[in-house]
Amino acid sequence: xxxxxxxxxxxxxxxxxxxxxxxxxxxxxxxxxxxxxxxxxxxxxxxxxxxxxxxxxxxxxxxxxxxxxxxxxxxxxxxxxxxxxxxxx
Length: 89
Fold this sequence. Notes:
Elements lengths: L4 E4 L1 H10 L4 E7 H9 L4 H17 L3 E4 L15 E5 L2
Parallel strand pairs: 2-3
Antiparallel strand pairs: 1-4, 2-4
Helix pairs in contact: 1-3
């Protein structure tokens, strides 16, 4: 596997999947945030984001892994919204 970088945030991860311009090895989702969003009566935009990511990652054959944010600190730095991906250059 070539050098691995991390993208964080829905827009960055979704765009990388959609464009197909770089390899996407794995998508990481913060389990606590995911559970909170999915159980909420609100958070509709985030629910859609998770749904879009799931569909596109399955279509592209990219595995998704649920983690605690602290288990993958470099992937969840800043405004990731609990979504990150390991990608190639």
